[in-house]
């Protein structure tokens, strides 16, 4: 479950994984990453592989991955170095742009800095290092900007302001096995909310 704002989502994911493993009649143990001795529990269980069912900081920022790597324990998902970069939206954008990928114009702000936006509205305001759309607001005018910034800063020390781009939203997962990369089928996201927010992501009736 972990201790981030996404603990509840992590517990949902863990429950789904546990149900699937039960159906497959696999032997497994459930360990809560919020426990101070979670790593000792993992080492004591001596698993073939750890399925990381964590969302948000600690579970997606390379912390858990690094701890498992140092113990020589296999786990699912990206390695610690990749995870550390990927959870940082601004750093990920910098890398993508260096590869020639077109992205929405954005600006990074640190807590304590004056948050201003001199481009057209709407603008998307979001935490720089969190997930599940926590703290995300589509701001339509300058009067609502500061409130949205305060909301995003509640989830971290940095926030990102980014041009809002209307249109069709697509998602494509990529799975790596060894050195082979496989792109999964494209999925069009049609949220029942204003955007693909927390409710739309985790409430089937909203997407």
Explain what you see.
The mean pLDDT is 92. With 207 residues, the chain is α+β, with helices and mostly antiparallel strands. A hairpin with a 2-residue loop joins strand 6 (174-177) and strand 7. Helix 3 (63-70) runs antiparallel to helix 4. Helix content is 31%, strand content 16%. The strands form three sheets. A four-stranded antiparallel beta sheet has the order 1-4-2-3, with helices on one face. It has a two-stranded antiparallel sheet with strand order 5-8. A two-stranded antiparallel sheet has the order 6-7.
Outline type: globular
CATH fold assignment of the largest domain: Rossmann fold
- How many domains? The number is 3
Structural class: alpha+beta
Enumerate how many helices there are, as a single number. 7
Biggest sheet strand line-up = 1-4-2-3
The radius of gyration is 19 Å
Instruction: Profile the largest sheet.
Output: 4 strands, antiparallel
Indicate the proportion of strand residues.
15-25%
**H and E order:** HHHHHEEEHEEEEEH
Relative helix content? 25-40%
Total strand segments: 8
Mean pLDDT across residues: 92
What's the CATH architecture of the largest domain? Answer: 3-Layer(aba) Sandwich
Poorly predicted runs = none
- CATH class descriptor name of the largest domain: Alpha Beta
The end-to-end span amounts to 24 Å
């Amino acid at each position: 479950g972990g201790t981030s704002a996404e603990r509840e989502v992590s517990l949902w994911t863990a429950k789904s994984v546990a149900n699937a493993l039960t159906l497959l009649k696999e032997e497994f143990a459930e360990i809560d990453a919020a426990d101070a001795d979670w790593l000792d529990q993992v080492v004591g269980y001596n698993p073939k592989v750890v399925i990381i069912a964590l969302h948000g900081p600690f579970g997606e920022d390379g912390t858990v991955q690094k701890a498992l790597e140092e113990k020589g324990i296999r786990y699912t998902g990206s390695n610690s170095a990749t995870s550390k970069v990927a959870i940082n939206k601004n750093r990920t954008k910098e890398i993508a742009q260096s590869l020639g990928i077109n992205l929405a114009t954005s600006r990074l702000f640190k807590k304590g800095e004056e948050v201003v936006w001199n481009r057209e509205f709407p603008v998307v305001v979001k935490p720089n290092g969190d997930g599940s759309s926590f703290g995300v607001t589509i701001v339509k005018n300058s009067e609502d900007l500061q409130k949205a910034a305060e909301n995003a800063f509640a989830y971290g020390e940095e926030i990102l302001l980014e041009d809002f781009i209307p249109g069709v939203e697509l998602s494509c997962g990529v799975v790596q096995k060894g050195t082979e990369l496989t792109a999964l089928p494209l999925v069009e996201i049609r949220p029942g909310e204003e955007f693909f927010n927390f409710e739309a992501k985790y409430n089937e009736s909203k997407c």
